Amino acid sequence: MILDWHNFDAVFQQKPDYALDQKTVENILRHRREFGDELFFDRIWKSIGLTQPSRKNYPARSNQDLRNVWSKIVQSPAPDEQKLALLYYVLLDCRGITGVDNVFVRRTYLPQKYQLLVQGLWELDHSQFSKALEHLTDPSLALPFADEVLLSLLKHPRCEPALATAFYITVSPPLRDPKTVDAYFDLLSSNNLPEAYYFAKRQDKLNHKSLFEKLVATVHQEKGGQLRATRATILVGLPFSSEEDAWFEDFLLRGKGTKFPGAKDTVMVRRLATGKSVSAVTENTMLNRLKGENIDGVSWETIRRSIAEAAPS
Question: The whole model's pTM is what?
Answer without folding.
Answer: 0.86
